[in-house]
Amino acid sequence: MRKNIVAGNWKMNNSLQEGLTLAKDLQKALNGKTVNCDVIVCTPFIHLASIAPELTSIGLGAQNCADKVSGAYTGEVSAAMIASTGAKYVIIGHSERRAYYGETNAILKEKVLLALANGLTPIFCIGEVLAERESGSQNAVVEKQIRESLFDLSVADFGKIVLAYEPVWAIGTGKTATSAQAQEMHAFIRKTVEAKYGKQAAEDVSILYGGSCNAGNAAELFANPDVDGGLIGGASLSVEKFLPIVEAF
Ligand code: PEP
After folding, report:
1. DSSP of 102-165, one letter per residue?
2. Strand, helix or coil for residue 62
3. What pLDDT is recorded for position 1?
């Protein structure tokens, strides 16, 4: 079944102490509240094990995982290590990983397989850059990202994926896709999934929107029939900014 989800992506922000405080404060703010979505925070790797015991209703995720199982890969963190902290989610294919760390669709495919093998739910990011949007090739770009990284999965494994459409030109820029642009792309993504895996899989997959989502625009974005929540960067770094987005459902 499709779920509404609001996930925070803390990126490379917050010391361990600051992260712990933020996680505790967010959990406290949610205690006793009924919200109409799953809430997730994706923290830096080193925060995971400390934050896990503090969360009761909030899901915990990492922002990346290695494309290898284990071994001599200095500085890398495996999906198994992430799972061993208690985290249940991992962002894979964020545009910053694609742009700054050379992560290709083929590499991301390996990461997805390892995440799934270790019981983690991948939050798989897709999205076009500004030049691609301006040339009208956004659908082809997003279709290719999905096909090359995800479409060798079984229908059962595809059912474990959460998708996040993040137009790169909207990330951290204050420039949000319009509600109509988000709906149009999300509907296209659902159609693409349907063509490969059938109607039920397309109906069941959660597709989040990411890109300068905030308290002021979340409700309008989430009201679209194919927008199932948000992946939130900047506005996930304070309870005051994040909570209204959670409550936008
Ligand atoms: C993100 O990095 O996933 C993101 C959506 O960032 P922001 O909300 O800051 O645009």
Report:
1. ---HHHHHHHHHHHHHTT-EEEEEE---HHHHHTT-HHHHHHHHHHHHHTTS-HHHHTT-EEEE
2. strand
3. 85
Among residues 113, 112, 132, 106, the alpha carbon closest in space to that of 124 is found at 112
What is the predicted pLDDT for the residue at 99?
Answer: 97
Query: pLDDT tens digits for 182-230?
Result: 999 999 999 999 999 999 999 999 999 999 999 999 999 999 999 999 9
Residues facing 92 on adjacent strands: 124
Which residue's C-alpha comes closest to atom 8 of ligand 1?
A: 233
CB 166 within 8 A of CB 210: yes
Question: What is the distance between the alpha carbons of residues 132 and 126, in angstroms, rounded to a whole number?
Answer: 13
Question: Catalytic residue at 166?
Answer: yes
Query: Which parts of the chain register pLDDT below 50?
Result: none
Q: Which mutation among 171, 214, 236 tests ligand 1's pocket best, with the greatest number of atoms within 8 A of CB?
A: 171
- Tell me if residue 47 is catalytic: no
Predicted pLDDT at 10: 98
